[in-house]
Amino acid sequence: MAQTQQANEVSALSSYDAYFERIESRKKLPQPLQETLTAAFARIPVSTFPQVPGGKVIEILADATIADAVKILSECNIMSAPVRNPDAVTSLDWTERYLGIIDYSAIILWVLESAELAAVALSACTATAAGLGAGAVGALGALAIGVTGPAAVAGLTVAAVGAAVAGGVAADQAGAKDAPSAADNLGNDFYKVILQEEPFKSTTVRSIVKSYRWAPFIPVATDSSMLSVLLLLSKYKLRNVPVIEPGKPNIKNYITQSAVIGGLEGCRGRDWFDCISARSISDLGLPFMSSDEVISIQSDDLVLEAFKRMRDNQVGGLPVVEGPKKKIVGNVSIRDIRHLLLKPELFSNFRQLTMKDFMNTVVATGQEFGRLTPPITCKVDSTLASVIQSLATKMVHRIYVVAENENEVIGVITLRDVISCFIFEPPNYFDSHFGFSVKEMLNR
Predict the structure, then answer these.
(1) Is 437 exposed, middle or buried (0-12, 13-18, 19+ CB in 10 A)?
(2) pLDDT band at 73 (very low <50, low <70, confident <90, very high)
(3) 343 neighbors 365 (Cβ within 8 angstroms)
């Protein structure tokens, strides 16, 4: 058992090392300049980074329901928030006080997995007729889509899901629908189940925050260096880094990849930034991801497949393309999945909805908040300054590199890639500045 855990730890840390080694091999920024920038960021304390809007970090209690969490994220116009443990109110130990970070991706993947499990269970309802029962129907559904640990951890055991859809099977059969048709048109009924029926409506943030997380909760102290933050946001794949003040219980600040890119954009006009950002991205080795490494989705593929690819590959967005040359026609990100939840007309047909229909429907429904972000593109001769400006001002997480004469996707540049441009990890930095607790969190 100990050997297995040790092997997993080595594997996790090795994947971070492999990413950064690949980046270093493709980067073209002169090494002396990288060393100068890295040393400079190492001298900048985290406490100097601008505070979150309003000056207070929004937190969500672990015993809040999923519906409450969605409401808080929506009302505060944020994508994620730290989850506070109500059972450790007086503790000053962050490992006890905070359970992780909840974001839209975790919530939406939980909903989609639950809905897909229910749909497959409906399709398998002949098993119920054979005497296997609702729980077995749920088990068949779980096997069919590969659902293992997370649903059970979230309190959505296969038996519970089977029981939740059993009534739907009976109702749909009474209405003269066959099982596959009932599954494909689950939509509105399941949408109501999620919000109003057990075990869904009572599911708490605590029950899904660890099973559906995309990155661990790793805070830094106010006296840490910005280099530590930048390494966590690039090499170690975190999307946000909470900042804590030693000896005090609450999170002091919350630094995201987007906030760092915004900070870099604010450096425009400074000599060190302008001499680097004036170069073309190709001169700097960007994009680090080649055309054959870009994960995309065809416009006639199902929207569910797009979100599965994001989940399986741990990426936050995909270019929507057409044809063998991958001409870009759209963009879909993990945040866009919220439209399936906010628009019942989409959710009602989510198992048959193509990417093209998804994009057209969202655009047609009108309201400003409901619009999809169009694909942001650049060419290989675009400057790094223009890429950073697009990422910062348009508040997107990736920009697609397209061929000169056609909109063929030949690469992608993410927030993580841009941050990685400016720094490298000095020898033994991890052991000296992060230590065992961070290594343990990264390997969970």
Answers:
(1) exposed
(2) confident
(3) yes
